[in-house]
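User: For my dataset I need records formatted as: sequence, then structure tokens, nothing else. Please produce one.
Assistant:
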Amino acid sequence: MTHLAATTGTAATTAATTGTAAAVPARSRRARIALRTTAILLAAFFGLASGLPKLFAAPAAVEAFDSIGWGAPGMYAIGALEVAGAVGLVVPLLAGLAPIGLGALMVGACAMQIVVFDGENAATPLILLVPLAVLARAHRNRNRDLVSLLRRRPAA
């Protein structure tokens, strides 16, 4: 039912699912398609074009992380975070949290581009922040669903 509420965006279903009385405006079919397409495209970029080359130690990634001074451990850590974020973008329950995490990575990437590489490609992470911010805003109610789910779990 939570997935249905997140997908359709209807106020009644969301209120019934989360137990809140707050009304969530219904999204049009076009808006849902645009958000889903944006999430899939970003997931493909972060997972396939950015994260996997770091995890497979592509020469360009190795060179970049060596010049930063982070070496292989930093490269693998960032690659794993990017792939995890890509997966999170397409998992409905994580779709609110993933763009926030990837946005934080992009802020760090922009800072590194400015500090280490003299701003050579600093615009790329800034450009990626725009659709990530749109997704984070559109799926902010999913964060509440995730928190409520985590609170219901018994402590181990």
